[in-house]
Design goal:
Helix content is about 95%, strand content about 0%. It has about 210 residues and is mainly alpha-helical. The protein has a single domain, classed as Helix Hairpins (Orthogonal Bundle). The longest helix is centred in the last third of the chain and has 115 residues. The protein is rod-shaped and about 165 Å long.
């Protein structure tokens, strides 16, 4: 009875060990698929970074253009003010008043435009910084995950090699053990036959 249970336990262990390589292979394939997904995510983030750089460059160019336009307007206003002062003594008062009012309104408009440009620049700078920080954090997380996946895959490969070695060792030792068990079975069978023969002879002697 005990021998039967032992053989069954040994068979179960062997079955588990033989199944391990397939389990490791499935795990490895899953990790490989995860790695591909992470790499695709990394590529998308990289594309996002490039798009952000393009937007940032465009914003900088437009900001410089707006500043140049604003500076040009202020320069023209200064020229208008100078001309207005020069003409104030030569032109009628109502004309100089109109020119002065026009220059004042134009100054106010340029001031509001500069204020709007300044707010727009601050908001764009904030958006660029915030967006850039988010991309940087995402890239850092992606790189960490990629590192973990590579490390895990390496460990799985090592585990797979260990399992294969273990499987080979167990199979070899099991084969040797089964061979010895078979030899033992033959010896037991031979001994049983010899004992039966001896018992038969003893009975024959007893009857004589």
């Amino acid at each position: 009875m005990g021998y039967g249970y032992k053989r069954r336990d040994t068979t179960d262990i062997v079955a588990v060990i033989e199944a391990l390589p397939e389990i490791i292979k499935t795990l490895y394939n899953g990790i490989s698929s995860l790695k591909v997904s992470v790499e695709m995510l990394s590529e998308r983030v990289s594309d996002l970074e490039k798009a952000l750089d393009s937007v940032a460059k465009l914003v900088d160019e437009k900001t410089i253009l707006l500043v140049n336009v604003s500076d040009e307007l202020k320069k023209r206003l200064e020229e208008v003010n100078v001309v207005s002062k020069e003409l104030s003594d030569k032109l009628p008062k109502n004309v100089t008043d109109i020119i002065g009012e026009f220059a004042t309104n134009l100054n106010k408009a340029v001031g509001k435009l500069e204020e709007m440009y300044s707010k727009m620049l601050d908001e764009l700078t904030l958006i660029k910084r915030s967006f850039g920080d988010q991309v940087a954090v995402t890239m850092e997380a992606v790189n960490e995950v990629k590192g973990d996946v590579l490390s895990l895959r390496s460990k799985v490969e090592e585990l797979g090699l260990t399992v294969n070695e273990l499987s080979s060792t167990v199979n070899r030792e099991l084969a040797e053990t089964m061979s010895k068990i078979h030899e033992l079975e033959l010896l037991v069978t031979d001994l049983s036959v010899r004992l039966a023969s001896l018992e038969k002879r003893i009975r024959q002697v007893s009857h004589e």
